Amino acid sequence: MNGSEDKIGPKHSEVIGDFPGHALPGVFFFVIGLWWSTKSILKYVCKKHKQTCYLGSKALFQRLEFLEGIAVVTMTLIGIIGLQFFAGGPHLIIHNESPWKRVLRLQHLTLYFFFGLLGVASILCSTVSSIPVSLIKLMMSNAFFVESFIFYNHTHGREMLDIFVHQLLVLVSFLTGLMAFIEFLTQKNILLELLRSSFVLLQGSWFWQIGFVLFPPGGRTAWDLLDHDNIMLLSVGFCWLYALAFIVIGANYAFITWLVKSRLKKQCPSEVGLLKNVEQEQESEEEM
Amino acid sequence: MNGSEDKIGPKHSEVIGDFPGHALPGVFFFVIGLWWSTKSILKYVCKKHKQTCYLGSKALFQRLEFLEGIAVVTMTLIGIIGLQFFAGGPHLIIHNESPWKRVLRLQHLTLYFFFGLLGVASILCSTVSSIPVSLIKLMMSNAFFVESFIFYNHTHGREMLDIFVHQLLVLVSFLTGLMAFIEFLTQKNILLELLRSSFVLLQGSWFWQIGFVLFPPGGRTAWDLLDHDNIMLLSVGFCWLYALAFIVIGANYAFITWLVKSRLKKQCPSEVGLLKNVEQEQESEEEM
Amino acid sequence: MNGSEDKIGPKHSEVIGDFPGHALPGVFFFVIGLWWSTKSILKYVCKKHKQTCYLGSKALFQRLEFLEGIAVVTMTLIGIIGLQFFAGGPHLIIHNESPWKRVLRLQHLTLYFFFGLLGVASILCSTVSSIPVSLIKLMMSNAFFVESFIFYNHTHGREMLDIFVHQLLVLVSFLTGLMAFIEFLTQKNILLELLRSSFVLLQGSWFWQIGFVLFPPGGRTAWDLLDHDNIMLLSVGFCWLYALAFIVIGANYAFITWLVKSRLKKQCPSEVGLLKNVEQEQESEEEM
Amino acid sequence: MNGSEDKIGPKHSEVIGDFPGHALPGVFFFVIGLWWSTKSILKYVCKKHKQTCYLGSKALFQRLEFLEGIAVVTMTLIGIIGLQFFAGGPHLIIHNESPWKRVLRLQHLTLYFFFGLLGVASILCSTVSSIPVSLIKLMMSNAFFVESFIFYNHTHGREMLDIFVHQLLVLVSFLTGLMAFIEFLTQKNILLELLRSSFVLLQGSWFWQIGFVLFPPGGRTAWDLLDHDNIMLLSVGFCWLYALAFIVIGANYAFITWLVKSRLKKQCPSEVGLLKNVEQEQESEEEM
């Protein structure tokens, strides 16, 4: 790798980007992962308690889908406009003389655009009734597959560790896309949705990790980008962030279940009490 | 790559092919992608409005399938004969002394043959009733998988960028084959069919892109085939052509839906009007 | 590759094996592929005509399965014993001092053993009723996956073309295993079974092709094992053998369908005649 | 590989680990593979004989699941604590100056943690009724996928044969995870569960093989870690251990079936005798 680097020149061997550029998408993915897991759990819990008490009709979730679409489109529009404003703007004509940085900016523009398509699909599916609802899942898997494709072609001529952290990003966004595609093919499965959300959470926290590795803030010692041991260490850190995503989603699940149950008690105490007894009986029966 | 190139000799380092040789399959794939998306949307829309008004019976689509098969077989026959006529013809005996160009021509001949098999399958399925209809999907996935296999073995000893653009061709034809195979395994799914059509559209437009990159027409400056930045730029262009395919199919969907609805209004206005009110009520109910 | 070859020594650079050693498995796979396709077509055709005339009960196919198992086990036993007899026998203790040829013989022994397991599974499933029938498909996919694994580790230190032809063998046996595994997971699908049979036929004819390439019989000029053009030529030949497998299976299908129909006519002419009229009516209706 | 090794230094070229460190996980995986196969077979056999005689209610299996979860969590806790106690303990803060051995220990800690999560999932699913039961399968596939990811990043800078044996470990744990994921997506399938168990058994015995290859106990001659022939020999040994796993599971199946039948005879002889006659009749009918 080093040999070919020398040919390309020193321009590429410097690390491109900055800490906020990786922290912002990290926050975005973490928030949207948290939101998707919340939505999935809420749907699941409401469906289970539907026969006892009215909460969370189909219309409510459709409206949430609509608002989610608006939010995603807004965020991607802000991203695209910000990219033009702060960076002088990418040229929209493919031209082979453009320098490296312009290409990187075009790649980000494309990323934003495909996530924007996901937002548009959310809006369309929640307003036009003739469009199949699974279009959202398809565009979601699409957006993440395109992301993994772009990041795969993002790291030509970089250092070993820089490539490795982006390869893991490719891995996690590919897995997210794959999960969304399996969801698109099969029927509703709460665990698949939560698995996808955990991958999105992992991606968010991994963006932060990349930021800390490549641009150590506040005078901390920089990582040696050519040391194999650091690759092994980062692969461990990747697994820990994955475990963290699991714990976040588990806590979220426990919290929402508790919230819905306590709300149900207040609104229609008699029915729930009746149900709970039945449930307890069933549980004790199954535990026997 | 350059080192091994020198051993093989300068004969291979020149770019083989010309602009029309990439523009023609581009047009073919774009037209057939457009046709397949039109057919899928038409089937979907007609199925939804079947209970209100007669339009698009099963027999009509079977006849369309038959005509499609005839068209595909004709085009591949023209391709095969043209290959023999204009190029002096490939020898049909595998012989290890044949020069490189003859091998390339044999590869194209094989490509045409497998697309011809797809046409034959269309004809057989629409005439012989004992053959399962999913044979068409199987032969379709087959043709695209064979295409990706051949293009994978198409680029030995070429320049970096030349290899990269053909690798993306391998990717898109492999994905098309994969989608067709999933369609073969699962039941009807309009979105899967449209996804496959969008991959075919992407392949068509990518053939044009390859033509412009490798054989810039009209005195435009040639691309540097050894520059890594061009790879990153072309990966962005690939995504944009993919987005373009989505937009084309979305426009097609909107146009056909509008067309069918307006035709239905003219032919049997009373029933449709009745239906529309019911639909509007349902929509307003769901949006509530 | 050449550089590392020099280190290992000239012992490995000579091509190991002979023409009959590749022709025999070729015949075996071709015969079993033909038999499997015949069985699948027969089952399919008999199932369609079940309501008109008695032919091909479940018991008959179970007995065929039993006989197939016996045949496969016998053939693998002959192979294993022949390997011991003609070659002095592999040592059954893993020992790191064994020369290269002994390893190759152990690999063939393992191959035979797993195909023997497939035969045993056929026998067990057709005699013991408590074992699920899909075990046959599982062991079949197993045998082909193990074959692809072994051939993947079969070619260390060989010439480029020698490696390439074995890589294609890995590809086709992996695809056969994959098809058998999909059959194991899904319900009956005649086209999947025929696709698997066509891969087995392809494997059989590809063994012959390997024999002709590596050990040209009768004084024909040998192939240059280091020429890239030969790789491209052989990839074309691979596709043609695949097309040949399709044509063989298509002819087989037409022949069996014709045979079953002509037999049905003789045995119970009145009913079939009645049925045929109904079918013709249906066909003309669908073609309308 | 050797060239890059020299750069990293001689520290990495020595083989890290010892025989017990590979024998212990080997025993663990062998025992758990045996237990999982026993559980699957028991469930399958009990389900078939449910209509004749009471044995193995749902509650019993739920309690077994609970005990299994407790056992797994206990074992992983022992592993984690032992790792801290005997090795001085890994530092829990990601820091780029840590030496290689600390990273390896962190990797093992992560492995144990994810298998602990599997145990926790088993406990949760058998106590809290609102959690879907397929969570166990999901966490199982998760644990094995994470294991394959970690072992993939485990072997930087080692010798060829050392890398190869760990690559096969990656392969088998990836396949185990894949099988568990397919089980998670599809409904109950006894053969899939047994296939997964056989992969776990294979992994257990392969750990022993790794121990014997890298740390030959008792003065046996060490393996040449740079010889290609050894790779081919070990790939054969891998297949034989796989065949061994099949034989173990087959014997287990025969033993449990015999045990359940003989127990049923004692407990409720009349009914079983009646059933057996019916079965024999059916069998003779099917064999006819």
From TrEMBL, chains A, B, C, D:
Q: Name one GO cellular component term.
A: membrane
Instruction: Name the source's superkingdom.
Output: Eukaryota
Question: Pfam families from the entry?
Answer: DUF716 (PF04819)
What InterPro entries does its record include? DUF716, TMEM45
Where's it mainly located?
membrane
Q: Where are the transmembrane segments?
A: 23-45, 66-89, 109-128, 135-152, 164-186, 198-219, 231-256
Give the record's keywords alphabetically: Membrane, Transmembrane, Transmembrane helix
- Is this entry keyworded Ribosomal protein? no
Asked if the Swiss-Prot or TrEMBL record annotates the protein with the keyword Disulfide bond, the reply is no
> Which family would the database say this protein is a member of?
Belongs to the TMEM45 family.
Instruction: From the Swiss-Prot or TrEMBL record, give the protein name.
Output: Transmembrane protein 45A-like
Identify the species of origin.
Answer: Marmota monax (Woodchuck)
